[in-house]
Amino acid sequence: MQTPGNKRSPCPSFRLREVASMYFTMIMVFLVILVVALQGTAPRENYFPYKVPLDPQSFLELSWNVSYPEQVVHFQLLVKEPKFGLLFGMSDRGEFENADLAVLWSDGHSSYFGDAWSDEKGQLHMDSQQDYQLLKAHRTPEGLYLVFKRAFSTCDPKDYLIEDGTVHLIYGILEKPVRSLQAINISAIHKGLQRVQLLKPNISTPELPRDMKTMEIRAPDVVIPSQETTYWCYMVELPDSFPRHHIVMYEPVITTGNEAIVHHMEVFQCAAEFDSFPHYNGPCDSKMKPDRLNFCRHVLAAWAMGAQAFYYPEEAGLAFGGPGSSKYLRLEIHYHNPLVFKGRHDSSGIRLYYTATLRRYDAGIMELGLVYTPVMAIPPGEAGFLLNGYCTDKCTQLALPPAGIHIFASQLHTHLTGRKVVTILSREGREREVVNADNHYSPHFQGDVLITTCMYNTKDRNQATVGGFSITDEMCVNYVHYYPQTQLELCKSAVDSGYLHRYFNLVNRFNDEEICMCPQASVTQQFSSVPWNAFNRDVLKSLYDFAPISMHCNKSSAVRFPSLWTQQVVHRPCASCPHGVIES
Q1: For the packed helices 534-546 and 497-510, what is the interaxial angle rounded to 10 degrees?
Q2: Nearest Cα to Cα of residue 184 among 124, 130, 128, 106
Q3: Given pLDDT bands bounded at 50, 70 and 90, which one contains residue 514?
Q4: Cβ distance 177 to 98 under 8 Å?
Q5: Residues catalogued as catalytic
Q6: What class of enzyme is it (predicted)?
Q7: Which strands sit side by side in the sheet containing 133-140, from one edge to the other?
Q8: Is the pTM above the cut of 0.90?
Q9: Is the torsion defined by CA of 107, 113, 114, 120 positive or negative?
Q10: CA distance 442 to 403
Q11: Long-range contacts: 3-8, Cβ < 8 Å, 24+?
């Protein structure tokens, strides 16, 4: 995240811009020949602290670092099986039209590198202003390394502005030689998309304690099922009489070759009121999974693809072990296997760093957003559909201390159609501040409403996208890290199911096509039969904006705090309304 003091360099004057454009046009008359046969070693890995696979097979691996003083991102791209070139770049929504690209291509004899852009038809053009600057090219036993840099802002209208938040990275692989840049046919190449946060928070790493120890919670050589989506559960037992410690850091441990399949992981601690939990190693949705595992909901660590090590501030740590703490932990791994690999083994997990020297505060993790349920759905063909998840003032008053809590970190998560996520604080019906930022402090969250809003784009889908666990379903989640710890583990909402049933009845009355309302029809089936005309879309949006909600104000035992949580009326904040609130 950019700190307030970091400002992007201003764009040059028109005259200087003209000169720069002429200069780079002359340079590009003589294309830079890239000698890919150079022998050498790859740059030091610690120079590129962030890493993510671009493709499901991990043939393309991207690493990068961010220089806020220079306002520059340095990229390192490892091509494990170089062919005749590749395209790498950025676009608004991951499309290859109107994209900003760095292109490496070969005519079979020589190789070339250049900054290019694509028009609305996907035709490639060499950019007159070369802002992707090639720094190094190395061939090693691992493959071909390309190192290049790009400024956040280039003042080139053909270039993508690198900002905070999600960046849609696109890639394409050239499997045949091409005689020129213009001869590349984007529609005929293997291509794909990866979403990352390029501009990582500009924060210092806390000093770790000298008595720190490590513990790895890892899957036991699991054979990943040959299906697109799997949630795998594995039970772990801490040693007897394991004393109280503070977790001060954690990081992912990914089995080599599975970087593109391990989508996200969580470590949960089980409820202390149970003396024992059965050992289990298998799919989380299996009928063989013991029901008691549903009481393992206290989050100790959460990681998603593209994230790095997580550090706690020096004044706080996440407590585990000791009296009143269960010795049973549950590892949950989401495997995203779109190519349906068979026989792939995995021992991924999370490494915990912990200390016996307890810190001033016990930290906690609270899950905000929407409940994983199909009652929250996005119609097909939407460019920017909004869904809101509520943590109501009724819940925060009941579960948080009078002095409030200190939020110091936030982890946002959606699936494939998610475009934006933000959590705001609302007090007395008015938006007060954004709270999904690092190092955010507020002593007043008790009695406040925390609203997590997610925006989705379903332009490429012809069926409704429902909430759920599958990668093709959607989520809207914000893991908030805070102190002091409370019993509140989950504060999320969903539209009241009775009002959704009324929506389906209304659609039946005003449309010629009937929706299956039979008892055995699931909500997903009912949504799939809705004819998505303008009327049905608008009514669904109004339903989500004004209907009562069902609140989940849950403890780590998965039990709700005692109160009435169904058919709750919420006051939606509205900056333009006379009283600052939409009455519902």
Answers
A1: 160
A2: 124
A3: low
A4: no
A5: 231, 413
A6: oxidoreductase
A7: 50-53, 60-67, 72-79, 143-151, 133-140
A8: no
A9: positive
A10: 10
A11: 3/68, 3/202, 6/68, 6/71, 6/202, 8/71, 8/152, 8/153
